[in-house]
């Protein structure tokens, strides 16, 4: 295999991350501080209550994003190391980048940004959009391409959220519109621009195995357990937060049962599809977010969870292949089925229909346009997009011990991987 062109910068990934972290250290040293300790007992008690009421939710969300979502992406049998590591890397990178941008835009007073747990939580919500969007191109993009994608997506998300929540006044505590719909169509826009009109043929390394599907299903279970915390954390403590937790649990319980029903009915032998279970069981949590804290009856939460699961499973079975054939749209993880379709359903179910429709238009329009532009930028050769035969393979980025001494038909691919690693 020929060595990749010399135009690729050597060690691009550590250079990119090293410069970013150095710049962030300088920024924090100059502008970021904590709030001064209060001498008033009442103020101290108020701060303590805020921390104790928020931090358990924050921990749940950390488990969701680091462990649950990371494992959900391990359905690619030879890309598990990369899926987990890239998810973890992007979470930290995007959170820090969002902290900087949000601090400059909203919290910069008298030359300083005062950091607290709430601001960190909001930054993690911004990072979620990146973790969802990369699902569209998982396995076919280099780490540098993913970091550039995150760099572009965070500011677009912050602008979109400001328009939807602040300007339009849309109530979306669970991020159905601002997070799930935005990230879905941003990711699809990136995919469309990155791969253009070339239909990606099935890759031999992207077929799940029983063990990889099992690990991914474990990720689904973790996400399912902690999802109510994700929806309820930004609600007002009290009745609103209580309703959000109950509505989310009801919606996700209904989506789990409905997924089993629909998946079984779609298969001639009545067996269940692991891919349907991994995604459809979570669809209720996506759809309920926009109305979670509202005074909707319990039956509405159950109905929304069931309908979202039906849409998700049908999307995997029929819509994804159709979009691939007609629009040459590549969606590796099916983010359109889990985040896009249930998100649109949730927005349609919002009580404030006019405002929700306007917010939906902003989220879809801005994310698609920005995604297309970002995807075009990711085609730059210097970002070291992996060649087709090395996609979905951990050996491109990791030292895999059990493959070190193997030789055979794939030896040339391994040599190419080693050569490309030196460039990336």
TrEMBL record:
GO molecular function, one example?
A: ammonium channel activity
Cellular component terms (Gene Ontology): plasma membrane
Q: Where in the cell is it found?
A: Membrane
Give the membrane topology.
Answer: Multi-pass membrane protein
Q: Which InterPro entries match?
A: Ammonium/urea_transptr (IPR029020), NH4_transpt_AmtB-like_dom (IPR024041), RhesusRHD (IPR002229)
**Record bears the keyword Transmembrane:** yes
Where do the Ammonium transporter AmtB-like domain residues begin and end?
Answer: 24-357
Sequence similarity = Belongs to the ammonium transporter (TC 2.A.49) family. Rh subfamily.
This chain belongs to the protein called Ammonium transporter AmtB-like domain-containing protein
Taxonomic source organism: Cyanoderma ruficeps (rufous-capped babbler)
């Amino acid at each position: 295999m020929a060595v990749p062109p010399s135009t690729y910068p050597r060690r691009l990934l550590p250079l990119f991350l090293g410069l970013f972290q150095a710049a962030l250290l300088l920024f924090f040293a100059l502008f970021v501080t904590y709030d001064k300790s209060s001498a008033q007992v009442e103020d101290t008690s108020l701060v303590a209550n805020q921390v104790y009421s928020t931090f358990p939710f924050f921990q749940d969300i950390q488990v969701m994003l680091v462990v649950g979502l990371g494992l959900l992406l391990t359905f690619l049998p030879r890309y598990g190391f990369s899926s987990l590591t890239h998810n973890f890397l992007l979470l930290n990178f995007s959170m820090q980048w969002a902290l900087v941008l949000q601090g400059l835009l909203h919290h910069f007073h008298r030359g300083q940004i005062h950091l607290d747990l709430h601001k960190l939580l909001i930054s993690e919500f911004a990072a979620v959009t990146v973790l969802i969007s990369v699902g569209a191109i998982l396995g076919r993009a280099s780490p540098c391409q993913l970091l550039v994608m995150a760099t572009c997506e965070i500011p677009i998300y912050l602008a979109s959220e400001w328009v939807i929540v602040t300007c339009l006044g849309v109530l979306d505590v669970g991020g159905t519109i601002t997070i799930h719909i935005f990230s879905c169509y941003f990711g699809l826009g990136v995919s469309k621009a990155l791969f253009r009109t070339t239909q990606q043929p099935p890759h031999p390394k992207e077929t799940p195995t029983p063990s990889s599907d099992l690990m991914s299903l474990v990720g689904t279970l973790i996400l399912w357990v902690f999802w109510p915390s994700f929806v309820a954390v930004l609600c007002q403590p009290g009745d609103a937060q209580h309703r959000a937790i109950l509505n989310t649990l009801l919606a996700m319980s209904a989506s789990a049962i409905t997924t089993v029903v629909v998946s079984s009915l779609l298969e001639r032998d009545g067996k269940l599809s692991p891919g349907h279970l991994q995604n459809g069981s979570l669809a209720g949590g996506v759809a309920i977010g926009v109305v979670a804290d509202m005074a909707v009856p319990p039956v509405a939460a159950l109905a929304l969870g069931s309908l979202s699961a039906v849409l998700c499973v049908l999307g995997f079975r029929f819509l994804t292949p159709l979009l691939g054939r007609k629009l040459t749209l590549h969606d590796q993880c099916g983010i359109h089925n889990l985040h896009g379709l249930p998100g649109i359903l949730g927005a349609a179910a919002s009580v404030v229909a006019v405002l929700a429709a306007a917010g939906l238009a902003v989220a879809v329009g801005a994310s698609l346009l920005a995604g297309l532009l970002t995807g075009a930028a990711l085609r730059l050769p210097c970002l070291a997009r992996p060649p087709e035969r090395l996609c979905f393979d951990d050996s491109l980025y990791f030292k895999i011990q059990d493959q070190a001494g193997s030789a055979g038909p794939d030896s040339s691919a391994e040599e190419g991987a080693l050569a490309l690693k030196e460039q990336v």
